[in-house]
Amino acid sequence: MKNLVNWFEIYTSDFERAKKFYTEVFKLKLTDISTNSDRHSNMKYAVFSNTENKKYVNGALVKIDEAKPGVGGTLVYFSTEEINIELNKVEKAGGKIIRPKLQVGDFGFIALIEDTEGNMVGLRSMK
Fold it and tell me: Taking every annotated instance into account, which residue ranges of this chain make up the domain VOC (predicted)?
């Protein structure tokens, strides 16, 4: 069975600041890519590092005039080994902890954070 979700975009107002936040908190690589679009000449796009592995959900940070960052949009959960590791990095990287680690029955643990752009994103782990 395929993953129901196969792509996500996290919108930014300050593209470089957002890239720095996700790199610092999750210790991952973001790769800038060209969109080859005259219509969206000011669009910026950076793909999360696991996009070459087709087994996982993939996505990007995006700066585009048509979509603004903020709470109330799509909520993306990042998988973690142990949520407190990433939570301990959030405020140092310029974000906020919205909801600390919370157990959700047999589904493990979740937490909510706000990135530097005002987007709320989730963390999820089994321990």
Answer: 4-126
Give the relative orientation of helices 15-26 and 83-90 as an angle to the nearest 10 degrees: 140
Assigned domain for 117 exists: yes
- DSSP secondary structure code for residue 13 in this structure: S
Buried b (16+ CB within 10 A) or exposed e, 85-117: ebbebbeebbbeeeeeeeeeeeeebbbbbbbbb
* Structural domain total, the chain: 1
The tens digit of pLDDT for each residue in 32-81 reads: 987 766 665 678 889 887 645 556 677 889 998 878 888 777 788 999 99
Residue ranges making up the domain that contains 97: 7-125
Q: What is the mean pLDDT of the chain?
A: 86
10 Å CB burial of residue 77 (0-12, 13-18, 19+) is middle
CATH number, residue 84: 3.10.180.10
Beta partners for 7? 58
Q: Has this prediction a pTM greater than 0.70?
A: yes
Q: Is residue 1 domain-resident?
A: no
